[in-house]
């Protein structure tokens, strides 16, 4: 299980796991509950690299990032930690 503190978005924390290259158990603290539950369910069971490609670079309003973009960054961090 990984914990990531996003920057520049409403969500305060992203918790997730990666098992055999697959995203599992994504949960956000804070932010827009409905949208973040939707994102969490959509990426559950997805290959980590596919999720990163789909989410990276999404912006929110005038911000240069978004909760999906921060999830991509969290997943990238998780992969690096697994690689050791």
UniProtKB/TrEMBL annotation:
<dbReference type="GO" id="GO:0071897">
    <property type="term" value="P:DNA biosynthetic process"/>
</dbReference>
<dbReference type="GO" id="GO:0000166">
    <property type="term" value="F:nucleotide binding"/>
</dbReference>
<comment type="similarity">
    <text>Belongs to the ribonucleoside diphosphate reductase class-2 family.</text>
</comment>
<dbReference type="InterPro" id="IPR023806">
    <property type="entry name" value="CHP03905"/>
</dbReference>
<keyword id="KW-0237">DNA synthesis</keyword>
<feature type="domain" description="TSCPD">
    <location>
        <begin position="4"/>
        <end position="77"/>
    </location>
</feature>
<protein>
    <recommendedName>
        <fullName>ribonucleoside-diphosphate reductase</fullName>
        <ecNumber>1.17.4.1</ecNumber>
    </recommendedName>
</protein>
<keyword id="KW-0547">Nucleotide-binding</keyword>
<dbReference type="GO" id="GO:0004748">
    <property type="term" value="F:ribonucleoside-diphosphate reductase activity, thioredoxin disulfide as acceptor"/>
</dbReference>
<dbReference type="Pfam" id="PF12637">
    <property type="entry name" value="TSCPD"/>
</dbReference>
<dbReference type="InterPro" id="IPR024434">
    <property type="entry name" value="TSCPD_dom"/>
</dbReference>
